[in-house]
Amino acid sequence: MMQNVLDVRSLRQQIYEYLQKEIQAGRLVPGAFIRLNEISEHLGVSKTPLRDAIIQMECEGFVSILPRRGVLLKKMTMAEIKDILEILGALESAALKSVFDRITPRRIKKMERLNADMRRCIREKTFHEFDSQYYSLNIAFHDVFLELSGNAAMKPLLATMKQRLYDFPRLAYMKDWELANCNEHDRLIDHIRNGEKDAAAIFWQETHWGFEAQETYIRRFYAQGRT
Predict the structure, then answer these.
(1) pLDDT, tens digit, for every residue of 116-145?
(2) Which of 35, 48, 92, 125 shows the greatest Cβ crowding within 10 Å of its Cβ?
(3) What pLDDT is recorded for position 51?
(4) Is 227 inside any structural domain?
(5) How many CB atoms lie within 10 A of CB 116?
(6) What three-state secondary structure class fits 4?
(7) Which of 17, 47, 73 is a domain's end point?
(8) pLDDT at 227 over 60
């Protein structure tokens, strides 16, 4: 039961993280209603912290609260995917430009190491190992420059949108897309090393996060069952 593993996090946050894991694992399915009574009984918690967790998920776009019907786990539409990619591209490219002159050779080396580890993960890991390790390495690569930004509001927003795209539920990664992703990381590193601030930002926004540039991969990825 949830109450047996209480820690410094609020009960609402623990329930929120439990729901995230259930969605990620595919036990809660987009397009279906979340059975709040069952979850409340399973966790041994009252409806209040569960409701608070659901409200947070609604604010973040994961669910819809429908009066007299219940809580619906939302499916992603292609239009929503395009909108999120546009926001991610705008935010990350703006952050990249703002911190560009503070990306040191040491940070560039870190980006290279992370990207090499991502390629190694693609080559050597089983799916379940790859599933968790590759994702963590990819996030860490982006964070090398994002963590230089002083915009505290941007970071949780980016994290939530990336979860919305890739985590709920976690779909099978496509190796050709991930290898292309690593190649794009190489191009970004080259732009940074060469001092090409504007070119780096444009590339990151229009290619790495660009819907049109990634559309073939995106449609294959989400054809697995999410939309």
Answers:
(1) 999 998 888 765 555 678 888 999 999 999
(2) 92
(3) 92
(4) no
(5) 13
(6) helix
(7) 73
(8) no
Angstrom distance (rounded) from CA 174 to CA 115: 17
Instruction: Look up the domain containing 49 and give its range.
Output: 2-73
Which of the listed residues 43, 73, 103 is the one where a domain comes to its end? 73
Query: What span, in angstroms and rounded, lies between the C-alpha atoms of 161 and 168?
Result: 11
Shared domain check, 127 and 67: no
List residues bridging with 223 in a β-sheet. none
Q: How many angstroms separate the CA atoms of 48 and 12, rounded?
A: 9
Handedness of CA 215, 218, 220, 222 (dihedral sign): negative
Do 29 and 17 meet the contact criterion of CB atoms below 8 Å apart?
A: no
Decide: 210 and 85 in contact? Cβ < 8 Å. Answer: yes
Please write the tens of the pLDDT for every residue from 88-120.
999 999 999 999 999 999 999 999 999 999 999
Separation CA 103–CA 143 (nearest Å): 12
Tens of pLDDT, residues 19-50? 988 887 778 888 899 999 999 999 999 889 99
b (16+ CB within 10 A) / e for 33-71: ebeeeebbeebebeeebbbbbbebbeeeebbeeeeeeeb
CATH number (domain holding residue 116): 1.20.120
**pLDDT category, 6, cuts 50, 70, 90?**
very low
Q: Are residues 7 and 62 in the same domain?
A: yes
- Torsion angles phi and psi, residue 125, rounded to 5: -90, 150
Residue with more model confidence, 198 or 222: 198
